[in-house]
Amino acid sequence: MNVPASAVLLSYVILGSYMMSPSVITVPGTDWTEPVLVWITVYMDSGGGKSVLCKHIYEIKEAIRSNLGLTMKDPSWVFEDGSFEKMGAMMEENSCRLLGCYDELSAFLTRINLYSGKSLSNSHELVVFLQLYNGHPWRRDTVSGGANFAMSSTMLTTQPGVARSLIEQPSNAERGLSSRFLWFFPECLYGSFKSLCKVDKEFTAKIIGLFEAQWKEPAAGDKVIEAREFKLPENLKVFEEFYDQTQEMLKSLAGVDELLTGMLSKSRGQVLRVAAVLHMLFSIDNDNYEVKEEVSQDAIKAAINLIKTACQQTAFVAGRGVLQEEVVNPTLKELNPNEATKEIKQKMLLHSA
Protein backbone atom coordinates (compact mmCIF):
# COMPACT_ATOMS: atom_id res chain seq x y z
CA MET A 1 0.00 0.00 0.00
CA ASN A 2 1.27 3.45 -0.90
CA VAL A 3 -0.17 4.82 2.34
CA PRO A 4 1.51 6.65 5.26
CA ALA A 5 2.64 4.15 7.90
CA SER A 6 1.15 6.33 10.64
CA ALA A 7 -2.29 6.14 8.98
CA VAL A 8 -2.09 2.34 8.94
CA LEU A 9 -1.06 2.30 12.60
CA LEU A 10 -3.96 4.57 13.56
CA SER A 11 -6.38 2.27 11.74
CA TYR A 12 -5.01 -0.70 13.68
CA VAL A 13 -5.43 1.28 16.92
CA ILE A 14 -9.09 1.84 16.10
CA LEU A 15 -9.86 -1.71 15.04
CA GLY A 16 -7.78 -3.07 17.91
CA SER A 17 -9.63 -1.04 20.52
CA TYR A 18 -12.91 -2.37 19.17
CA MET A 19 -11.70 -5.98 19.28
CA MET A 20 -10.57 -5.44 22.90
CA SER A 21 -13.94 -4.07 24.00
CA PRO A 22 -15.18 -4.01 26.60
CA SER A 23 -11.93 -3.15 28.38
CA VAL A 24 -10.79 -0.58 30.91
CA ILE A 25 -7.41 0.66 32.11
CA THR A 26 -6.67 1.75 35.67
CA VAL A 27 -3.94 3.79 37.37
CA PRO A 28 -2.43 2.15 40.50
CA GLY A 29 -2.96 4.03 43.76
CA THR A 30 -5.89 6.02 42.37
CA ASP A 31 -9.55 5.56 41.51
CA TRP A 32 -8.86 6.56 37.90
CA THR A 33 -10.40 4.22 35.33
CA GLU A 34 -10.67 4.85 31.59
CA PRO A 35 -12.59 2.77 29.04
CA VAL A 36 -10.32 1.52 26.26
CA LEU A 37 -12.35 3.48 23.78
CA VAL A 38 -10.81 5.68 21.08
CA TRP A 39 -12.24 8.18 18.60
CA ILE A 40 -9.75 9.07 15.86
CA THR A 41 -9.97 11.25 12.77
CA VAL A 42 -7.38 11.07 9.99
CA TYR A 43 -7.06 13.74 7.30
CA MET A 44 -5.75 12.50 3.95
CA ASP A 45 -5.90 14.59 0.78
CA SER A 46 -7.51 13.24 -2.39
CA GLY A 47 -5.29 10.58 -3.91
CA GLY A 48 -3.53 10.01 -0.60
CA GLY A 49 -4.70 6.42 -0.26
CA LYS A 50 -7.69 6.76 2.06
CA SER A 51 -9.84 4.35 0.02
CA VAL A 52 -7.02 1.80 -0.15
CA LEU A 53 -6.60 1.98 3.63
CA CYS A 54 -10.35 1.63 4.27
CA LYS A 55 -10.42 -1.42 2.00
CA HIS A 56 -7.50 -2.97 3.89
CA ILE A 57 -9.22 -2.51 7.27
CA TYR A 58 -12.52 -3.80 5.90
CA GLU A 59 -10.82 -6.95 4.62
CA ILE A 60 -9.17 -7.55 8.00
CA LYS A 61 -12.51 -7.07 9.74
CA GLU A 62 -14.25 -9.51 7.40
CA ALA A 63 -11.46 -12.09 7.78
CA ILE A 64 -11.83 -11.94 11.56
CA ARG A 65 -15.59 -12.36 11.39
CA SER A 66 -15.17 -15.33 9.05
CA ASN A 67 -12.64 -16.97 11.38
CA LEU A 68 -15.04 -16.47 14.28
CA GLY A 69 -17.82 -18.17 12.32
CA LEU A 70 -19.92 -15.03 12.05
CA THR A 71 -22.17 -14.50 9.03
CA MET A 72 -24.44 -11.82 7.64
CA LYS A 73 -27.16 -13.12 9.96
CA ASP A 74 -25.11 -12.21 13.04
CA PRO A 75 -25.16 -8.65 14.43
CA SER A 76 -23.12 -6.24 12.37
CA TRP A 77 -20.07 -4.67 13.98
CA VAL A 78 -20.25 -1.53 11.86
CA PHE A 79 -22.89 1.20 11.87
CA GLU A 80 -23.13 2.29 8.25
CA ASP A 81 -26.47 4.00 7.83
CA GLY A 82 -29.56 4.90 9.82
CA SER A 83 -30.77 7.15 12.62
CA PHE A 84 -29.27 7.84 16.03
CA GLU A 85 -31.84 5.47 17.54
CA LYS A 86 -30.90 2.77 15.04
CA MET A 87 -27.27 3.13 16.11
CA GLY A 88 -28.31 2.54 19.72
CA ALA A 89 -30.38 -0.50 18.80
CA MET A 90 -27.46 -1.97 16.85
CA MET A 91 -25.12 -1.35 19.75
CA GLU A 92 -27.38 -3.18 22.17
CA GLU A 93 -27.69 -6.26 19.97
CA ASN A 94 -23.90 -6.29 19.62
CA SER A 95 -23.19 -6.49 23.38
CA CYS A 96 -23.11 -2.69 23.83
CA ARG A 97 -20.29 -2.10 21.32
CA LEU A 98 -20.12 -0.67 17.82
CA LEU A 99 -17.46 0.21 15.25
CA GLY A 100 -17.57 3.15 12.87
CA CYS A 101 -15.31 3.75 9.87
CA TYR A 102 -16.26 6.60 7.55
CA ASP A 103 -14.77 8.63 4.73
CA GLU A 104 -16.07 11.90 6.12
CA LEU A 105 -16.84 12.90 9.69
CA SER A 106 -19.48 15.50 8.81
CA ALA A 107 -21.48 12.92 6.83
CA PHE A 108 -21.55 10.57 9.83
CA LEU A 109 -22.56 13.36 12.23
CA THR A 110 -25.25 14.61 9.83
CA ARG A 111 -26.66 11.11 9.54
CA ILE A 112 -27.23 10.90 13.29
CA ASN A 113 -28.60 14.47 13.59
CA LEU A 114 -25.55 16.05 15.22
CA TYR A 115 -24.37 18.24 12.36
CA SER A 116 -26.21 20.65 10.08
CA GLY A 117 -24.61 22.86 7.46
CA LYS A 118 -21.21 23.57 8.93
CA SER A 119 -22.05 23.57 12.63
CA LEU A 120 -23.19 21.22 15.36
CA SER A 121 -26.88 21.07 16.09
CA ASN A 122 -28.34 21.83 19.50
CA SER A 123 -29.91 18.42 19.94
CA HIS A 124 -30.51 15.82 22.59
CA GLU A 125 -28.60 13.42 20.40
CA LEU A 126 -25.44 15.52 20.80
CA VAL A 127 -25.69 15.35 24.59
CA VAL A 128 -26.04 11.57 24.51
CA PHE A 129 -23.27 11.18 21.93
CA LEU A 130 -20.82 13.12 24.11
CA GLN A 131 -21.65 10.81 27.01
CA LEU A 132 -20.85 7.74 24.91
CA TYR A 133 -17.19 8.81 24.91
CA ASN A 134 -16.98 7.71 28.54
CA GLY A 135 -18.97 4.52 28.03
CA HIS A 136 -21.98 5.84 29.93
CA PRO A 137 -25.24 3.89 30.09
CA TRP A 138 -27.76 4.55 27.31
CA ARG A 139 -31.46 3.86 27.66
CA ARG A 140 -34.34 4.70 25.36
CA ASP A 141 -38.04 3.92 25.83
CA THR A 142 -40.79 4.88 23.40
CA VAL A 143 -44.50 4.24 23.22
CA SER A 144 -44.16 2.55 19.83
CA GLY A 145 -41.22 0.41 20.91
CA GLY A 146 -39.63 0.87 17.51
CA ALA A 147 -36.10 1.41 18.82
CA ASN A 148 -36.03 0.70 22.52
CA PHE A 149 -32.81 -0.29 24.22
CA ALA A 150 -31.15 -0.29 27.63
CA MET A 151 -27.39 -0.59 28.03
CA SER A 152 -25.51 -0.42 31.31
CA SER A 153 -22.38 0.66 29.41
CA THR A 154 -21.44 1.52 25.83
CA MET A 155 -18.33 1.08 23.67
CA LEU A 156 -18.47 3.18 20.51
CA THR A 157 -15.25 3.13 18.48
CA THR A 158 -14.97 5.34 15.45
CA GLN A 159 -12.49 6.40 12.75
CA PRO A 160 -13.99 8.94 10.37
CA GLY A 161 -12.30 11.25 7.91
CA VAL A 162 -11.74 14.81 9.02
CA ALA A 163 -14.08 17.76 8.67
CA ARG A 164 -11.66 20.55 9.63
CA SER A 165 -14.48 22.99 10.37
CA LEU A 166 -15.15 20.99 13.53
CA ILE A 167 -11.70 21.96 14.79
CA GLU A 168 -11.88 25.59 13.74
CA GLN A 169 -15.32 26.66 14.97
CA PRO A 170 -15.14 27.98 18.56
CA SER A 171 -18.62 26.72 19.47
CA ASN A 172 -17.62 23.15 18.66
CA ALA A 173 -14.71 23.32 21.10
CA GLU A 174 -16.98 24.75 23.78
CA ARG A 175 -19.40 21.87 23.41
CA GLY A 176 -16.59 19.35 23.84
CA LEU A 177 -16.95 17.31 20.65
CA SER A 178 -13.68 18.24 18.93
CA SER A 179 -11.61 17.47 22.05
CA ARG A 180 -13.01 13.94 22.22
CA PHE A 181 -11.45 13.07 18.87
CA LEU A 182 -7.76 12.59 18.21
CA TRP A 183 -6.98 14.47 14.98
CA PHE A 184 -4.11 13.38 12.75
CA PHE A 185 -2.74 14.82 9.51
CA PRO A 186 -0.22 12.33 8.12
CA GLU A 187 1.85 13.45 5.16
CA CYS A 188 0.61 11.62 2.06
CA LEU A 189 3.23 9.74 0.06
CA TYR A 190 2.20 10.16 -3.60
CA GLY A 191 4.79 7.56 -4.57
CA SER A 192 5.67 6.42 -8.06
CA PHE A 193 4.27 3.31 -9.72
CA LYS A 194 7.44 1.40 -8.77
CA SER A 195 6.78 2.18 -5.11
CA LEU A 196 3.54 0.16 -5.18
CA CYS A 197 3.79 -3.11 -3.32
CA LYS A 198 1.50 -5.84 -2.06
CA VAL A 199 0.39 -5.99 1.55
CA ASP A 200 2.58 -8.32 3.58
CA LYS A 201 0.35 -11.39 3.87
CA GLU A 202 2.31 -12.90 6.76
CA PHE A 203 2.05 -9.73 8.84
CA THR A 204 -1.63 -9.29 7.96
CA ALA A 205 -2.31 -12.87 9.08
CA LYS A 206 -0.63 -12.10 12.42
CA ILE A 207 -2.68 -8.93 12.86
CA ILE A 208 -5.85 -10.91 12.16
CA GLY A 209 -4.79 -13.58 14.65
CA LEU A 210 -3.96 -10.99 17.30
CA PHE A 211 -7.27 -9.17 16.94
CA GLU A 212 -9.24 -12.40 16.81
CA ALA A 213 -7.63 -13.53 20.08
CA GLN A 214 -8.97 -10.40 21.84
CA TRP A 215 -12.63 -10.94 20.89
CA LYS A 216 -15.08 -11.88 23.62
CA GLU A 217 -18.68 -12.99 23.32
CA PRO A 218 -21.26 -12.85 26.13
CA ALA A 219 -22.29 -16.00 27.94
CA ALA A 220 -25.37 -17.78 26.65
CA GLY A 221 -28.52 -15.84 27.47
CA ASP A 222 -26.60 -12.71 28.46
CA LYS A 223 -25.97 -9.49 26.57
CA VAL A 224 -23.33 -8.01 28.85
CA ILE A 225 -19.64 -8.91 28.80
CA GLU A 226 -17.48 -8.33 31.86
CA ALA A 227 -14.85 -5.74 31.00
CA ARG A 228 -11.24 -6.86 30.88
CA GLU A 229 -9.00 -4.73 33.08
CA PHE A 230 -5.55 -3.43 32.19
CA LYS A 231 -3.41 -1.38 34.52
CA LEU A 232 -0.39 0.88 34.42
CA PRO A 233 2.78 -0.47 36.07
CA GLU A 234 3.59 0.52 39.66
CA ASN A 235 6.45 2.64 38.31
CA LEU A 236 4.46 5.64 37.09
CA LYS A 237 7.41 7.97 36.38
CA VAL A 238 6.85 8.24 32.61
CA PHE A 239 3.11 8.86 32.85
CA GLU A 240 3.52 11.10 35.90
CA GLU A 241 5.92 13.40 34.03
CA PHE A 242 3.49 13.70 31.12
CA TYR A 243 0.58 14.32 33.48
CA ASP A 244 2.42 17.07 35.39
CA GLN A 245 3.57 18.75 32.17
CA THR A 246 0.00 18.75 30.92
CA GLN A 247 -1.24 20.23 34.18
CA GLU A 248 1.27 23.09 33.88
CA MET A 249 0.09 23.80 30.36
CA LEU A 250 -3.54 23.76 31.46
CA LYS A 251 -2.72 26.17 34.27
CA SER A 252 -1.18 28.60 31.76
CA LEU A 253 -4.09 28.32 29.32
CA ALA A 254 -7.04 28.30 31.75
CA GLY A 255 -9.70 30.73 30.54
CA VAL A 256 -7.70 31.59 27.41
CA ASP A 257 -8.59 29.00 24.77
CA GLU A 258 -11.43 26.46 24.91
CA LEU A 259 -9.99 24.32 22.12
CA LEU A 260 -6.56 23.87 23.69
CA THR A 261 -7.73 23.44 27.26
CA GLY A 262 -10.33 20.88 26.19
CA MET A 263 -7.80 19.01 24.09
CA LEU A 264 -5.13 18.98 26.81
CA SER A 265 -7.63 17.98 29.47
CA LYS A 266 -8.76 14.96 27.44
CA SER A 267 -5.17 14.06 26.46
CA ARG A 268 -4.40 12.57 29.88
CA GLY A 269 -7.11 9.94 29.60
CA GLN A 270 -6.44 9.45 25.90
CA VAL A 271 -2.86 8.43 26.68
CA LEU A 272 -4.20 5.69 28.95
CA ARG A 273 -6.70 4.46 26.35
CA VAL A 274 -4.21 4.42 23.49
CA ALA A 275 -1.49 2.87 25.69
CA ALA A 276 -3.71 -0.15 26.35
CA VAL A 277 -4.28 -0.67 22.61
CA LEU A 278 -0.60 -0.22 21.73
CA HIS A 279 0.28 -2.66 24.52
CA MET A 280 -1.96 -5.19 22.79
CA LEU A 281 -0.43 -4.45 19.38
CA PHE A 282 3.09 -4.81 20.81
CA SER A 283 2.12 -8.33 21.96
CA ILE A 284 1.83 -9.58 18.38
CA ASP A 285 4.82 -11.93 18.72
CA ASN A 286 3.77 -13.42 22.08
CA ASP A 287 2.80 -17.10 22.27
CA ASN A 288 -0.91 -17.49 21.52
CA TYR A 289 -1.07 -13.69 21.27
CA GLU A 290 -1.09 -13.42 25.05
CA VAL A 291 -1.58 -9.86 26.26
CA LYS A 292 -0.49 -9.25 29.85
CA GLU A 293 -2.59 -7.24 32.25
CA GLU A 294 0.16 -4.72 33.04
CA VAL A 295 0.73 -2.19 30.27
CA SER A 296 4.37 -1.92 29.21
CA GLN A 297 6.46 1.23 29.57
CA ASP A 298 7.10 1.13 25.81
CA ALA A 299 3.37 1.31 25.15
CA ILE A 300 3.00 4.26 27.53
CA LYS A 301 5.87 6.17 25.89
CA ALA A 302 4.50 5.46 22.41
CA ALA A 303 1.00 6.58 23.46
CA ILE A 304 2.37 9.84 24.87
CA ASN A 305 4.22 10.54 21.62
CA LEU A 306 1.11 9.75 19.59
CA ILE A 307 -1.14 12.01 21.69
CA LYS A 308 1.40 14.83 21.64
CA THR A 309 1.54 14.58 17.85
CA ALA A 310 -2.25 14.83 17.63
CA CYS A 311 -2.33 17.84 19.95
CA GLN A 312 0.47 19.64 18.11
CA GLN A 313 -1.05 19.09 14.68
CA THR A 314 -4.55 20.07 15.82
CA ALA A 315 -3.28 23.27 17.44
CA PHE A 316 -1.31 24.11 14.31
CA VAL A 317 -4.22 23.56 11.92
CA ALA A 318 -6.46 25.66 14.19
CA GLY A 319 -4.01 28.56 13.97
CA ARG A 320 -2.72 28.33 17.53
CA GLY A 321 0.97 27.81 16.71
CA VAL A 322 2.54 25.01 18.71
CA LEU A 323 1.61 24.21 22.28
CA GLN A 324 5.01 25.09 23.76
CA GLU A 325 4.59 28.62 22.39
CA GLU A 326 1.12 28.79 23.87
CA VAL A 327 2.48 28.29 27.38
CA VAL A 328 5.00 31.10 26.95
CA ASN A 329 2.68 33.41 25.02
CA PRO A 330 -1.05 32.64 25.26
CA THR A 331 -1.82 35.83 23.33
CA LEU A 332 -1.24 33.82 20.15
CA LYS A 333 -4.97 33.17 20.30
CA GLU A 334 -5.46 36.76 19.20
CA LEU A 335 -4.09 35.90 15.74
CA ASN A 336 -6.72 35.48 13.05
CA PRO A 337 -6.77 31.69 12.47
CA ASN A 338 -7.88 32.17 8.86
CA GLU A 339 -4.89 34.36 8.04
CA ALA A 340 -2.45 32.46 10.24
CA THR A 341 -3.19 29.10 8.62
CA LYS A 342 -4.14 30.07 5.07
CA GLU A 343 -0.91 28.81 3.51
CA ILE A 344 -0.62 25.73 5.70
CA LYS A 345 -4.17 24.68 4.85
CA GLN A 346 -3.40 24.95 1.16
CA LYS A 347 -0.18 22.99 1.26
CA MET A 348 -0.82 20.84 4.39
CA LEU A 349 2.88 20.80 5.23
CA LEU A 350 2.33 18.65 8.28
CA HIS A 351 4.53 15.73 9.10
CA SER A 352 3.49 12.80 11.25
CA ALA A 353 5.83 11.61 13.94
Q: How does this structure look, described?
A:
This protein is mainly α and 353 residues long. The chain has one domain (5-347): Rossmann fold (3-Layer(aba) Sandwich), CATH 3.40.50. 46% of the residues lie in helices and 11% in strands. The protein has 14 helices and eleven strands. A three-stranded mixed β-sheet has the order 2-1-11, covered by helices on one side. A two-stranded parallel sheet has the order 3-10. Strands 4-9 form a two-stranded parallel ribbon. A hairpin with a 6-residue loop joins strand 1 and strand 2. Helix 1 crosses helix 10 (258-281) and helix 10 (258-281) runs antiparallel to helix 11. The model is unreliable at 325-353 (pLDDT under 50).
Return the structural class.
Answer: mainly alpha
| N-C termini distance | 19 Å
Work out the helicity level. 40-55%
Order of helices and strands: HEEEHHEHEEHEEEHHEHEHHHHHH
The CATH topology corresponds to Rossmann fold
Q: Largest sheet, described in full? A: 3 strands, mixed
Per the principal axes of the C-alpha atoms, what is the gross shape? globular
What is the CATH architecture term?
3-Layer(aba) Sandwich
How big a fraction of the residues is strand? 5-15%
Regarding CATH, which class?
Alpha Beta
Low-confidence stretches: 325-353
